[in-house]
Amino acid sequence: MRFSIISTVACSMLACFSQAFAQQETSPEGLTSDQVIERSGVPSSAVAAVVNDAVVTTFDLRQRIKLMLISSGGQIPQDALPQLQAQALRDLIEERLKLQETKEFDMEISDAEVMDELSVMAAQSNLTADQLIQTLEGAGISVNSLKQQIKAQIAWPQLVQGRYRDRVRVNEDEIDNTLERMREDASKEQFLVSEICIPVDNPSQAQQYYQGGMQLIEQMRRGVPFAVVAQQFSACTTAAVGGDLGWVRAGELAPELDSAIRELPAGSVTNPIPSEGAFMILAVRDKRPAVVKGEPSFTLAYASADASLGNAQAHAALEKISTAEICAGRALRIDLGPGVGYSLLENVTLDQIDERFRTFVEDLDREEQSIVIEADGAYHSVYVCDKDEGLGLPSRDAIENRIYSRQLGRISQQYLRDIERESMVDVRIENFQQPNG
User: Fold this and answer.
1) Is 112 helix (H, G, I), strand (E, B) or coil?
2) Do 141 and 67 form a contact (C-beta atoms < 8 A)?
3) Cα 68 to Cα 65: distance, rounded to the nearest angstrom
4) How far is residue 265's CA from residue 258's CA, in Å, rounded to a whole number?
5) Model-level pTM?
6) How far is 304 from 345, CA to CA, in rounded Å?
7) Which residues of 248-272 are buried (b: 16+ CB within 10 A; e: fewer)?
8) What is the pLDDT of residues 51-81, one digit of tens each?
């Protein structure tokens, strides 16, 4: 969604940006743009955009551009500044829309939450929050500009998750299919990958989005680091860390992306690749050989019943392991009956299992239960919650979380587009030059 502002041959930067919004003539309160400006007391010449009942001023825009420049280490070329300006304005408008929507649902982000996030950001640069604020003020940046940005970054995901998490269903087949692809490809290379996401809001303008992505690649050819471009222009959640996806195993990404990184030499960047309603730009920073298969490890739900219960009662109790919630660690919801104890054993290798029980466990697969074993005055049984086959594959929970985040991210983008269509967004600025300093 953010890349509807990229300039193309067909239209200028700000002209494209203005056309990206489905504007309404009045705000939800029934006010026109001019009435909103008059009520705000801001001179018309200082208004960059009107967003429902709020204005974005040229001062706000100037502050955001300075913030983007300082966060990039001043590595943005001069000829990229118009693109940076358009992106800064887009970000400010989206923040207003997000904060207005969260206000509708009575969501409040406290100053303490904002300061906590500010402290985390400062720590990434080996600074305290006060030192970061001093650095910003020394560069002529009001910390309020950053706080506004942080507030939207905290509030929006909370709102989206609160409203839509029940709509996201990660199918077990999706997890199985992902694991199967990764298992089949475990003998192949792994890739250290970074990403830039360019959501395609309007499929009829896909070529314009593609050209916008190519402009970013051109900036990288001129020396702008991939991480800097990702921080400023990517719509992925990884933008905050420069687009870093970390080490990715073959088969872990969507097929069209997986195919591209396999063919790419280390140190190279793909052209924009259409994938799931967006264009993706991937950088392969490094490659390494496949993982050598090691020793399998298990996450086991273990239960034991005292022999005094008797054979029949002990077996009946232990059979409940597979339907209890030991694997989820929800102890308060587990009831195997009196005289039965249980525990969750994570990342257990075969050599850590009592040799008397080892042969009953080693051939079990996920969601399989051992027979009931009688030893040391008790009955014992284990259920396999998860199994790492020694290939270093991520857990099912990790894969589920990744799929869940991707699905929720798509919902978030659609939600924001819907808000835009129902809002009055009037871009007033035509030509704005960022002053020196």
Assistant:
1) helix
2) yes
3) 5
4) 13
5) 0.60
6) 13
7) bbbbbbeeebbebbeebeeeebbeb
8) 999 999 999 999 988 888 777 666 666 666 7
Domains assigned to the chain: 2-166 (1.10.4030.10), 187-292 (3.10.50.40), 297-388 (3.10.50)
What is the DSSP secondary structure assignment for residue 24, as one 8-state letter?
Answer: -
Q: Find all residues with CB under 8 Å of 238, minimum gap 6, and list them.
A: 194, 195, 230, 244, 245
Q: Is there a contact between 217 and 269 (Cβ–Cβ < 8 Å)?
A: yes
C-alpha–C-alpha distance, residues 208 and 15, integer Å: 13
pLDDT in tens, 245-278: 888 877 788 899 999 998 889 999 999 999 888 8
| Strand ranges (E), 350-392 | 373-375, 378-388
- Fill in the amino acid letter for 246: G
Strand partners, 303: 342, 381
Among 347, 339, 345, which Cα is nearest to 392's? 347
Q: Where are the beta strands (DSSP E) in 52-169?
A: 54-57
- CA separation for the pair 235, 406 (Å, rounded): 12
